Amino acid sequence: MELSLPDRIFAAGEKPVGERVNCYHKSKAINNILSALDEEEKDYLRKSPFGKLIATAEKPSLSGSFGHFIITRLLKVNKKYEIWILFAGRPIRVSLREFAIVTGLPCGKYPKKQKKKKKRNPIREKPYWPDLFGNLKTCSIESVVKMLKKKTVVDRETRLKYACLALTGAVLCPTNHRSKIVAEHVELIRSIEEFFAHPWGRVGFEMLMSSIKYKDEVALAQSTVAVKGFFHAIQLVLVEACPSLTEVVQLNESSSESESEGDEEKGESDDVAPANMPENPSNEQSIAGDAEKNAGKPSTHTESANVGLSPSHAREIDKGCKVSVFSIIPDDSDSAMEDADFSWSDEEDDPRVDNMVNLIGENFEFRKNMFQGGLSQAELAKMRLERKEIRERKEREKEKAQENATNLGAAGPSSTAPANIAELLSATVKAELAPVELKVAAAVDKISTIETNLSTLGTVMKTAMERMITSMQEQVISNIIGFLGKSVSEFDRHDTERDRSTARGNAERQGDAARTRARTTNHQTRQHVQADVVINDAIAFANNIDTEQQTDMQQEGEGVGGLSSEAGESNESPEERQGGAAEGNGDGDDLVDEIGDEGDGPRRGKRARVQTSFNDFHVDPKWVSCTMGSNPFLCHIEERPTYFTKFARLHEVLQNYRVFNLGSGTSVNNKDVLDIAGRTKPMMAKMMDALLLYARAVYVRHFSGSHLNKTAFLETKFTTALMKTWSKFSRLAVKDRHRFKFGDGVMDHLEVDSVEIPTPERLYLPFNFDREHWVGIVVDTTAGSMHVLDCNLSLRTDSAIKKELAPISMMLPYVLKQSPSKQHISESKPYVIVRPKGIPQNGIMCDSGVTTALLIMLHSVGGIDRCKMLTPEEMAKESQVLAVKFFEEFDAPA
Description:
With 894 residues, this protein is an alpha/beta fold. It contains 32 helices and 15 strands.
């Protein structure tokens, strides 16, 4: 099975051997800036949004060789603002989210630029640079640090602004070894509060990604790779993903010379204070005097050794693949990122990355050999040679063109005339055609490259087509077999029930002959289990689907925002359902299957069907303050063995059942009941509605009371109908929304028999994301809030959840206002969306449906504290109990 994972940039075992990453951010930059400040100023910065960035100076410093180790293990992804590193056999993501976690910087969207009104004589805003740095055109970070140490500037706010600009210029956004104050940053620091609120994390991360992404394989394979921005953040992410890296550290000896590489621009004076400083202009001469005194003195500063990661230890971990690694590091509890939006407007899609993220969510076990591709050392050497030849040819052509131009210029009036006119004309033509020759040579190179690619295109296309056809054939056969029950034995049983039902329907019209033919066909089907027979029976089964079932399927609307549509409808009329209920004479307490004389199917239970009216949702006062003890939805731990025994026999009992009519137009089959505990696929909306009907029936039976109505379980049909209304509702102005009339598809779910009954205080709504992940929504109508019960918080951020549920939170107050009860909601403000923390997490996508249903049931009687007890291990046990109780509640025979 092909996993479709990203390829390596460098092939396994063929990674280039280099020396280091040349990072412009230096480990001593933060300490140099802090050493120039007073203790009060240091404390202010540590408590600011730059506090966690400053704290990185206390962690293991960046090792250049370890940085090169990281660069050579990159995966090839199409994401513009995201890199993946293959370490210890697992991929590790480095995106804006991870950058925000390790730096603590704000990483929201860039603020929108306000459009200024055009005036006849516009007055430009005065630049802020002269207020801080006087007449200096440029100012290096080293100059700022010296001015802070010598207290050239005494104003506290100005000193803090200097320190902040030094941090952004030398730590977050360095572009060379001689970092300078960035003029654009100066204009943002007019107000220091607005400066701290700026998304500096997004600024620094965008520079870092652009510096890495714009390098091809040849540039990344160099012995020294220069990277702009705060490259230390990538090392911090790897340490968070694999804490075992810090088990072995080493002392990194670094001199001041290595920290000051790069050429300093001419004309810049690092020791001169800015002219016309408003705080202390008299210090200008003293600073200049100090510069003259210190001129020519050798530097006596030596940097002490600092602790860094050990590249050899990292290679051992990477080779062993025996340590625990987080592919996506968890959120930092100290960082407030609930409302942060880490998306990019120009991000590119990569299906392989999306597939890898889904596998990570399912706790898939990655291995090194799953990641293929990449360049070998021979291919890299060939690419280097080709580029070297192209570069040398261009240099020769350029030198030749310059020589021709020189010769042509020498042939002027003051020089000796050529021997004849032909030589002069030849020299002139060659000089004119020199640029054309360069373009022709480049075109010839491109044509040769195209010819090489076309020579192998036929073979590549043939291989790809054969692989695709084989995959399609396997997928078609797999889907057909899965459609028939994933095994021949299940297909035989399913086909037996279908033929038996067809024979009963045709007996009234065609007599015993049709029944005999159906049984004969069934007998012949069991004798052939080959693939061709399975496919033919699948086609026959699809063609024989009842017309009424096709009509029901066509009436199901597609959900809004990936939400599954309405639940399946029953094929029986109300009279047939009532008649079937009246004929049953069992109490439904035991798992005993009773079949009629002719084997037509099980007898229906005599229990009355539960209706969907709000009149059923009454809560007794004694249950309002429900304790954490036993509740009707779960069984006592001592009763579990009994239910496990019943579940072991449930598969055998359900073989005699095909469809369960649950009332309210909802029906499920025997496989759906078994899948409550099996959880082999994402739950459909029809089955979620069935579980809510079960929850409603149990709740009404245990918490009955004619004078209260505080809890309601609404089906997926209500949410689907409400989301379909959003397109019309959102076009109205806020002042006109109270006039909007919601259709019957929404209001029918709020139907009551008496206007004296108040609006429920709590509504439970299931919601589906991308047809795969379910969450439960608890609507508190009195507090005006919506609590989202989510068993997998890593799939979506809080801001993404609020964005997708915003239509429901905005429309619900207006819907409840139009309900027929006498309770009036004075305010129509959108409900506040909250996602409670502490709910046990379950990353398996197929478990979200049953987990959400159990969370809704537990929350209805015990609140959020009861939900915190539903761990994945407990959910696996309780799902078996739920399957048995569901069967006994609706269709257990006598």
